[in-house]
Amino acid sequence: MATQLYDFGMIGLGVMGSNFLLNMADHGFKVIGFDKDLAKGQAFEKAATAGTTVKSVTALEDMVQQLSSPRRIMMLVPAGKPVDDVIESLIPILNEGDIIIDGGNSHFTDTLRRVNYLQTKGLRFVGMGVSGGEEGARKGPSIMPGGDKTAYPHIQPMLESVAAKVNGEPCVAHLGNAGAGHYVKMVHNGIEYAIMEQISEIYELLKWGGNLTNEEMYEVFKKWNEGDLHSFLVEITRDIFLQKDEDGTFLLDKILDKAGAKGTGKWTSQDALDLGIPIPSIDQAVTMRNISSNKNFRVNAAALYGTHRKLLTINKEDLIQQAHDALLFGVIIAYTQGLSMIAKASEDLQMEIPMDKVVSVWRGGCIIRSSLLTVFSKVYSAQPDTENILSTQEIAELIKPILLTTRTILATAIANGYASGSLFASLSYFDAFTCAEMPTNMVQAQRDYFGAHTYQRKDKEGTFHTHWNA
Ligand code: 6PG
Questions:
Q1: Which residue's CA is minimally distant from atom 2 of ligand 1?
Q2: 329 Cβ partners below 8 Å, 6+ apart?
Q3: Ligand 1 atom 14: residue of nearest CA
Q4: Residue 3 lies inside a defined structural domain of this protein
Q5: Catalytic residue among 40, 192, 266, 357, which?
Q6: 266 catalytic residue (yes or no)
Q7: From 185, 207, 266, 357, active-site residue
């Protein structure tokens, strides 16, 4: 009898699901995958490393019957209704204490709902962010599980074996209760949006402002990736510059300038507004993708206004140095915003998210991995309750030397018609957050003028209302 043979099951043998399981099999675990599509199952089995134990089935019951107890079943299916459908089909065939893991990009409120719902059915639910794309899933992703704490010890050995490693430490940790895993992954994606947008804004300045060729930009990003901007996104950008199309010309130049989005960046912005936490660098990244999708409108409006970016008059070396500093500045601020959002959400929603572990898990495997995370990791290890890392000495030391050059290049960008929204938003966020006296006394006066909303004073305690212009 073939029961209780496999350690871990997967629902959905698309590239991500298949790669994740193959990775686990390579680490000595016996894995079984379910997909209705026989061809996907066959391709999965064929891709397995010789000597590993992998199996695919086309009936869910077959998989469930062959898993050891408590059953550990992960799904990698599209977010939304498909996740609920899978859950409903699993409930009648699972036993008390079995564990369901959602490894997709689900909304954290759905995850919270599912954790509570499955508790009533005696099942344990883990909402788990997985980052690193197809290659990451196969070779070592960054994994962000949250939810039922009692489930974690049962999946920990497997997750630690498949996760990316940094200095021998696995990039996985239990990141809090309820929807914490998916919350952290959502904000990870928000930061991802911001960094990608900022890189594209720098690309715009170098290409149209500095007339740099793709080969030159390859060299620039190559050098940057060897320094303090070392990161996955800078690394892939470097390689994108040299990618050729079939006809031998550069592929990048042929790609239409309309950016897609699956929604996680938008969710980040939406939730930040609810929390009252400013994340304008991320908001602008979402906005820029939205604007980019209006290609026809943009083409017509460009003709109407006669707008065009001007070639910059700075010499190339200065431009490259200033662009480097502005990108580093923007990226630090994007992380700052995302991390402050997670810290606030953790408190408001009682998710108990360990911030030091979040940054530690992001150091390897994920899309936003970068050497900056080592700095953030030190900050949170020393002061786990830091609300906003902008207030720390470590971040001040990073920002101070690049502030003036960042201002210089962004002022140049404004003056010459560059829509560097996410970078501008980063600087404005910084300037406001480091401003001891904002002009918002005026807003308070106006609110009180037309709405009797009251205000506080600098010179005495209390709440005041004035009969303005009485
Ligand atoms: C990751 C990625 C992954 C996915 C994004 C793409 O961490 O591996 O973030 O989750 O590629 O969701 O999102 P958009 O299609 O919205 O850009």
A1: 131
A2: 399, 402, 403, 406, 423, 426, 427, 430
A3: 261
A4: no
A5: 192
A6: no
A7: 185
273 with 346, same domain?
yes
pLDDT at 167 over 50: yes
294 & 325 share domain? yes
Our CA dihedral for 203, 209, 210, 212, rounded to 10 degrees, sits at 40
Q: Are residues 130 and 200 in the same domain?
A: no
- Whether ligand 1 lies within 6 angstroms of the CB of 262 is answered as yes
Annotation says 185 is catalytic: yes
Closest CA to ligand 1's atom 10: 131
In short, whether 192's Cβ falls inside 6 Å of ligand 1 is: yes
Give me the pLDDT at residue 178, please. 87
pLDDT(4) > 60: no
For residue 368 the two structure tokens come to 């936003």
Token reading at 64: 């469930």
Closest to 199 measured CA to CA, from 432, 430, 426, 360:
426
Average pLDDT over residues 389-414: 98
> What is the C-alpha to C-alpha distance for residues 121 and 92, in angstroms, rounded to an integer?
10
Q: What is the CATH number of the domain that holds 148?
A: 3.40.50.720
Q: Quick check: CB of 106 below 6 Å from ligand 1?
A: no
Domain that holds residue 338: 185-433
Is residue 56 a part of any domain in this protein?
yes
pLDDT digit string, tens, across residues 423-437: 999 999 999 999 999
Decide: 131 in ligand 1 pocket, CB within 6 A. yes
Say what the pTM is: 0.96
pLDDT score of 241: 98
